[in-house]
Amino acid sequence: MVDTENPQFKNALNLVQFTQQSVFLTGKAGTGKSTFLKYICGITKKKHVVLAPTGIAAINAEGSTLHSFFHLPFHPLVPDDNRFSTPSRLKSFLKYNKEHVKLIKELDLIIIDEISMVRADVIDFIDKILRTYSGNFRQPFGGKQLLLVGDVYQLEPVVTRDETDILRRFYENFYFFSARVFREMNLVSIELTTVYRQTDKVFIGVLDHIRRGAVTKDDLQLLNLQADPLLTSPSMGRDAIRTVSPHRGGDTPQGRGGPEFFSITLAARRDTVDALNAQGLNALPGDPLHFIGEVKGDFPSTMLPTNLDLELKVGAQVIFIKNDPDKRWVNGTLGIIIGIDLEGGNVIEVRTEDGDIFDVECARWANVRYTYNEQEKKIEEEELGVFTQFPVRLAWAITIHKSQGLTFNNVVIDFTGGVFAGGQTYVALSRCRSLDGLRLTKPITQSDVWVNPNVVRFSEQFNDQRAVDAALRRASADIEYSEAVHAFDQGDFHACLQHFFKAIHARYDIEKPWAWRYIRRKLGIINVLTAKIEALNQQLREKDEQLADMQQILNQYAEEYFQLARQCIDMDDPRAAFANLDKAIRMNPRYVEALTQKAILLLSQGKFRNALKTVNQSLDIIPTHFKSIYTRGKILFRMQEYEAAVADLDRCTSLKPQNISAHQLLGDVFSAMGEEEKAALQWEIAERLKTRKRKED
Q1: Bridge partners of 371?
Q2: How far apart, in Å, are the Cα atoms of 425 and each of 403, 442, 591?
Q3: DSSP string, 245-277
Q4: How confident is the model at residue 487 (pLDDT cuts 50, 70, 90)?
Q5: pLDDT bucket at 211, cuts 50 / 70 / 90
Q6: What is the rounded distance in angstroms from the CA atom of residue 612 to the CA atom of residue 126?
């Protein structure tokens, strides 16, 4: 669902669409950040790429990783690194090919998803790359517009101890917003505030306190009422399967499970998740079935969205990890495997939380890189590799990190081992739609809720409407001038003038020297084009005269072949007649007499359909050609399509009332239809015309 009436959504949309202003789009969990990203990619005409810091995030965003797109090294990228101190040294290190250089130059918009995970030094290095390869050293990011999407309250950059020791000498903190480039520019930050995931205002309020690190003892008391120390693992949901069979054909579950049936554990530790999923799978009868995915081309193992070797059983709880093209499920839908068909091409049958049962086949994911199409002037995706596997993974438990962006009805949160990253508690709690669907393996303490103070300070500039309005005002004239130029180039001078007058009303640039030069250059194009058009028209006239002369010669040859065909008909040689008629028609495709004669010859051989097709070609050229209309009426009569034959022959008697054959044939058609009175009338006319003709002769 796209809420285009949301004021923050509209602000962000206007800035991205109509300005060059770089934007940081953030928001609480469930406010529509991913929806905005997909929406803007679908409607923008700007040349853009979608990038993300990790392989999985890039696959989910249908883009590339930052490191693969920019060829970034994985070590800290400190500002004073001598290897990148000059443009030539940077180019020597990165070694971009010509196509990639062209791609970067042509980019209008760079979208980076999950920006909160990107380190400040990476942002500064990207700034250096873009300035160098765009040839624009004066503007941050080489004048490119950035759309940065993510929530700094949820995910933070992963920085090792060694990296920390190096980077702390250059940056106050490692979040992207501490990059030095942001001292040179105004990054407008827009926070989406309408929560669509939850509807309980109390729960939304508690989550907001957790997010901002302002949790109260009452908030903790309310949350901890959901704690159950005896809870160690989610329900296996075995009561949902009455008959467990490795093949389809067992009983299908009836009805829907209770609130515990589709419960998923979110755990802080990877080993906890693996143990719970192994426990769930082992508790089901039978041996697991192994489904081996397929990797073609370049698809790194770190980017695999699910296991290459996927172990499944009937009764296993799974989570869909890819939106279904037919919208039967979405990324994050939970389900139970109720059947596995090994004989029908590897299909698994899954019952979702809504009670719907679907046949699930393998899906494909693409590892892409961006290329620039010089001919069509657009950015395209090139597939480097493809991964094919069932779009599911075991889901009695997943890590809190992997749950990012997902929504569940019933959640068990396991903080065994403690919270080790800022925002982790908020991410876990905010996955659940309601407080009633939330369960805790242990109470949450104040120490589990902490937020980096740098994030809090940065968030104070969110939704500064003055900054948004100022950016839109600055851009309004540029937008109109740009639209005026575009309309002029398209030849739409009415629209050009409309945009031009709006532009000078917003900002009067008309008397500036650069504006005069630009207008003179554009108006000069009209004179150049007028001269070119006149020259082309003269060439066309000369070509038309040449073609007319050539066609006249061909028409003469066509007439000769037509006469030869008639002689062949008189000599009862239809094969030679067809050959000569075809030559005549090739030389003069509009030779109606030849087309009609060919139709008559086809009719004489009983080839009614071909005859009808040929005579229709002649009538397409001259719709009122009497002989063609008469011939078609005769063909239709032979095909017993009497109504159509009557229409043609009646038209013939109108075009040539004295034509004996038309009246005679029309009478024959009426007779075949049983219309004897009408037939007699036409025959009588024909006889009287014959009598008159004999007298005249």
Answers
A1: 380
A2: 12, 13, 84
A3: -SSTTSPPP-S---TTTT-EEEESSHHHHHHHH
A4: confident
A5: confident
A6: 69
Q: What is the DSSP letter of 447?
A: G
For residue 290, the cross-strand partners are 311
pTM to 2 decimal places: 0.61
Q: Which two tokens stand for residue 418?
A: 């403690």
Please give the mean pLDDT across all residues of the chain.
86
Q: Give the residue-averaged pLDDT of 391-403.
A: 91
Please count the other Cβ atoms lying within 10 Å of the Cβ belonging to residue 57: 22
297: left (phi over 0), alpha (psi -120 to 50) or beta: left
> Tokens representing 430?
């905010």
| Per-residue pLDDT, 239 | 36
What tokens were used for 388?
């094919």
Q: What's residue 247's pLDDT?
A: 34
| Residues 328, 350: Cα–Cα separation, whole Å | 11
CA distances from 544 to 60, 350, 534, 541 (A): 58, 68, 15, 5
Q: What is the mean pLDDT of residues 310-319?
A: 94
Q: Return the pLDDT at 645.
A: 95
Residue 342 has pLDDT above 50, yes or no: yes
| Residue 543: pLDDT over 50 | yes
Counting beta carbons within 10 angstroms of the beta carbon of residue 478, is it exposed (0 to 12), middle (13 to 18) or buried (19 or more)?
middle
d(CA 559, CA 156): 85
CA distance 589 to 566: 18
Could you write out the three-class secondary structure of 162-203? HHHHHHCCCCCCCEHHHCHHHHCCCCEEEEECCCCCCCCHHH
* Per-residue CA distances from 355 to 183, 251, 258, 310, 334 (Å): 53, 15, 11, 24, 11
287's tokens: 């041996």
Mean pLDDT confidence for 185-202: 84
CA distance 597 to 612: 12
Query: What is the sign, positive or negative, of the torsion defined by CA atoms of 340, 344, 345, 349?
Result: negative
Identity of residue 167: L
Q: Residue 392: is it exposed, middle or buried by C-beta count within 10 angstroms (0-12/13-18/19+)?
A: buried
Determine the Cα–Cα distance for residues 5 and 9; give it in Å rounded to an integer.
7
Pick from 2-11, 43-52, 305-314, 652-661: least confident: 2-11
Question: Please, are residues 232 and 467 in contact by the beta-carbon 8 Å criterion?
Answer: no
Is the pLDDT at 308 greater than 50, yes or no?
A: yes
Residue 589 pLDDT: 92
